[in-house]
Amino acid sequence: xxxxxxxxxxxxxxxxxxxxxxxxxxxxxxxxxxxxxxxxxxxxxxxxxxxxxxxxxxxxxxxxxxxxxxxxxxxxxxxxxxxxxxxxxxxxxxxxxxxxxxxxxxxxxxxxxxxxxxxxxxxxxxxxxxxxxxxxxxxxxxxxxxxxxxxxxxxxxxxxxxxxxxxxxxxxxxxxxxxxxxxxxxxxxxxxxxxxxxxxxxxxxxxxxxxxxxxxxxxxxxxxxxxxxxxxxxxxxxxxxxxxxxxxxxxxxxxxxxxxxxxxxxxxxxxxxxxxxxxxxxxxxxxxxxxxxxxxxxxxxxxxxxxxxxxxxxxxxxxxxxxxxxxxxxxxxxxxxxxxxxxxxxxxxxxxxxxxxxxxxxxxxxxxxxxxxxxxxxxxxxxxxxxxxxxxxxxxxxxxxxxxxxxxxxxxxxxxxxxxxxxxxxxxxxxxxxxxxxxxxxxxxxxxxxxxxxxxxxxxxxxxxxxxxxxxxxxxxxxxxxxxxxxxxxxxxxxxxxxxxxxxxxxxxxxxxxxxxxxxxxxxxxxxxxxxxxxxxxxxxxxxxxxxxxxxxxxxxxxxxxxxxxxxxxxxxxxxxxxxxxxxxxxxxxxxxxxxxxxxxxxxxxxxxxxxxxxxxxxxxxxxxxxxxxxxxxxxxxxxxxxxxxxxxxxxxxxxxxxxxxxxxxxxxxxxxxxxxxxxxxxx
Length: 684
Known about the structure:
By secondary structure, the protein is an alpha+beta fold. A hairpin with a 5-residue loop joins strand 10 (425-433) and strand 11. The longest helix is centred in the last third of the chain and has 45 residues, at 467-511. It is flat.
């Protein structure tokens, strides 16, 4: 016990905390990676972190005991992690930089793994040969009793092997980071590459006084990479919405990172190019699509526009778009549509009459012909299936009469401008109303019809129904907006809780008052609960289920019990919301306590017709009239207790997503009232 008290005393206990922190960090990283299922983080990253965990756990036990025999046993356990850590780190770096296939296919994997396995075996049988430890004694370093080792020849062989792999890993990461990565990603990768060297240098040069901080350095490097995964999307380039929409698209999706390396592709792309996602991942586009030159050019050229590519006798329209996040250009997404039928139809129509020759250029769906006044003179039978009108019902009418009033006015003006120049109608999107009142969106293409003198006498063309595509695009936009909102809620609310927890822990360290420790625990548990709520919301959004029935009173009561102020809650309503509604109420209550300095809050929930009104009234110092209009602006901050400026902005965006509104009023005689209006739940 005297030994434990000595090593845990200040400042020597910091060493124990560092090693224990390495255990917690490496364990957390393993859990997070396995739970989050990062698509491009393969087996080698958790293997490396598991090696750090074993090394750190063994080393912590070694520091905590003064018994030489126990220390030697723990050192052997440590060698399970020590033997594999350099191998795992190198293989992870090779996988991340797209080099792992060269190693696995080039038969280098087993020779690389042989030395770690031999080292592990020799460590456990060292007493028979002394190849790892030739001589072992104990020495004192401060209060610590640690092993003083004279190393055997195999230790130096393994050290050379380990430093060689660590050097190669550093080279791979740095060279990859220099190929066009953003400053933030570059810094993250460089730090992750260089920090593991710190522990090695301190130990080899004995600057650490016989103490080994190498596992701590590796855990810090892993934590930095995990930070890059969350904040700069180092391994992931598509939003969560892909599983709900993109996986089921008929069109192919290919994603390249900033270095033109394939990072993702959907099942449609696999079918189109006859290559599995597993084989394509980590390779550069020219290697994967070497038989499709136009697609390679499109992936490589930053300014490339839409291209039509030929591959194995089929034709594809490829449309590129840039992927970015947090202001960082992450790579490029290419949408690939099979247009083989269109191409073959064009070839056949060129051999037939002029009318079908012209129409074929526009990918026939609903075929039409209008005169110079824009009135239909020909309509194909497919219009019945799409709009519900028989062809004869539309003869003599104009396309603009089938559109909503404002849409008809807009399209008429565009058509008149195009007709005045006798130009082609190219990909003109327009909304129309079917006979039974539904709205459909067409992609219109057409060519001018000219007489022998070159005078315009009408247009021929086709309308393609793209309603489902427009709905899918809108759904993706809505999902991504909601996911961005979740991200802001997580960063804002958890930051507030962590700040309070940090302050409480600081006060506890000064006053040893358990109340401060309990407050810190409460805030940490609150953050954990918020993460779980947002995880549930994320799953709900990805599944496309949308809003659900929510009892306002239950949410309000769950929030106010976390605050040490006098709160009264009256009434209840049922509305349509999701897990983010808890954060809305929590933000408003926290603002009243922290910024309003109130000691009393009155919350009234009242149904009014088909609406629910929630009034959160405090008796604090109020809000000046001149800043009320700015309260809900993003990043607006005011006063000496100002936070990040995101809280009320997130509240407003969340309420608007529910189809509601929020306003602020003065309370009488003092204080502020936030008024939320939402639609009441009407039942199934």
